[in-house]
DNA sequence: GCTCCGGCCCGTCAGTTGTA
DNA sequence: TACAACTGACGGGCCGGAGC
């Protein structure tokens, strides 16, 4: 097995384990459904060509059923396995429930101002000028001064770049002025590059939020474990005090 | 030194969700 | 409803540690 194939195999199994744990915890998704869904999605998209034994069994079982039923089931499963809210949302909800949990800040515009204490991380800025206006492609991530209040878990503010049209400026022609196929192709390429650039940044942001979310969960676990331990000790103490003496 | 393995990060694609 | 934002999944590269 190649390295990537192995990685994929591990990731697939991890995902399945996670789904099984989730279903055991809340009981909302039966194992068979989760497995079937996972396996089916993978087979349909041609991804993850190495299904687990459970997946193989489920696929075989499912394929025997009527075609129409499987379509209906598929849609039902899609509804059950609806996407969870974004990490920003989850973490913000957590922060509102539990004091001390840092918030992932919403994007702030330049007009709202940023803290003078913020030392912006050096991020190259490139701005695309399009027919519809200016896109600020790369934002600057700055550790927020709020981090000082929340201990070791920094929050970040997303700042708009302050400079106007630095390196990497691409001037796009307005769609109305495009006539030749070459110009159309160039415009399509520009649009694609713009989309990729945005998605690249979005992926970075998403990963950063995910890390923050995981850190937040880990810290919550630590706090709750301590709390649990204290409660158990307290319970034992109370038992000692109030239990009738048998001798 | 070489190979294998596992972890981490990145860019991209595809699908979902939010919103104007 | 179109579009932007978000995110899971994938493939690939890099790096450090372990075993040989």
UniProtKB/TrEMBL annotation:
SMART domains, per the entry: BRLZ
Location (main, coarse): nucleus
BZIP domain mapped to chain residues: 189-240
Classification via CDD domains: bZIP_CREB1 (cd14690)
Spans annotated as Disordered: 22-49
Keyword annotations of the record: Activator, Coiled coil, DNA-binding, Nucleus, Phosphoprotein, Repressor, Transcription, Transcription regulation
SUPFAM superfamilies for the chain: Leucine zipper domain
Cellular compartment(s): Nucleus
One function term, GO molecular function aspect: RNA polymerase II cis-regulatory region sequence-specific DNA binding
InterPro entries assigned: bZIP, bZIP_sf, CREB1-like_pKID, Leuzip_CREB
Domain (KID) ranges: 54-113
Cellular component, GO annotation: ATF4-CREB1 transcription factor complex
Coiled-coil residues: 214-241
Polar residues bias spans: 39-49
Entry keyword annotation includes Transcription regulation: yes
Domain of life: Eukaryota
Family statement: Belongs to the bZIP family.
UniProt protein name: cAMP-responsive element modulator
């Amino acid at each position: 097995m190649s390295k990537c194939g192995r990685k994929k195999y591990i990731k697939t199994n991890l995902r399945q384990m996670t789904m099984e744990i989730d279903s055991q915890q809340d009981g909302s998704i039966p194992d068979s459904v989760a497995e079937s869904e996972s396996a089916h999605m993978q087979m349909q998209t041609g991804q993850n060509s190495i299904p687990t034994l459970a997946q193989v069994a489920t696929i075989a079982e499912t394929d025997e059923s009527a075609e129409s039923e499987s379509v209906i089931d598929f849609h039902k499963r899609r509804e059950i396995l609806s996407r969870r809210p974004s990490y920003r949302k989850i973490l913000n909800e957590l922060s509102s429930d539990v004091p001390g949990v840092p918030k992932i800040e919403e994007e702030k515009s330049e007009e709202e101002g940023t803290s003078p204490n913020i030392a912006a991380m050096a991020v190259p800025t490139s701005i695309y000028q399009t027919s519809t206006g200016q896109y600020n492609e790369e934002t600057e991530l700055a550790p927020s001064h709020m981090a000082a209040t929340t201990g070791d878990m920094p929050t970040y503010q997303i700042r708009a770049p302050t400079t106007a049209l630095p390196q990497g400026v691409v001037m796009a022609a307005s769609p109305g002025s495009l006539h030749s196929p070459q110009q159309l192709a160039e415009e399509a390429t520009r649009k694609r590059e713009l989309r990729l650039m945005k998605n690249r940044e979005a992926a970075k942001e998403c990963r950063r939020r995910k890390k923050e979310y995981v850190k937040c969960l880990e810290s919550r676990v630590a706090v709750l474990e301590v709390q649990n331990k204290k409660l158990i000790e307290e319970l034992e103490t109370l038992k000692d005090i109030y239990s009738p003496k048998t001798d």
